[in-house]
Amino acid sequence: QVQLVESGGGLVQPGGSLRLSCAASGFTFSSYAMSWYRQAPGKERELVAREISVGAIINYADSVMGRFTISRDNAKNTLYLQMNSLKPEDTAVYYCKASSLTYWGQGTQVTVSP
User: Which residues contact 104 (CB under 8 A, 6 or more apart)?
Assistant: First the structure.
């Protein structure tokens, strides 16, 4: 079955960096455009970054533009999110998703705090 396992979250100071990973299985990863979402406490889940087509034409939320970068390694069936210049408002649980599938992983917590 489809599985998405996010990892790499943690506690980081403002201005710091983290790289999130999403290990995918149960579907042909290289054929699916992927996305990253996040959900902060008390807020709705929001789109962070998404591939319009596999590995290309990427949209970023205005709030992360220029700081976050989505990438993939098809040989490892893994999606990445490089997050730089982190801000307290980036604190959330981060999720990956295959854009045309309805499965979600368990998410990984990112906390940005002094």
Answer: 4, 95, 97
Instruction: State pLDDT tens for residues 42-86.
Output: 999 999 999 988 877 789 999 999 999 999 999 999 999 999 999
Residue 14 has pLDDT above 80, yes or no: yes
Whether the CB-CB separation of 51 and 58 falls below 8 Å is answered with yes
Q: What is the 3-state secondary structure (H, E, C) of 19-56?
A: EEEEEEECCCHHHCCEEEEEECCCCCCEEEEEEEECCE
Cα–Cα distance, 12 to 18 (Å, whole number): 8
> In the 8-state DSSP scheme, what is residue 101?
S
CA dihedral angle for residue 112, residue 52, residue 103, residue 78, rounded to 10 degrees: -70
Q: What are phi and psi of 27, to 5 degrees?
A: -155, 165
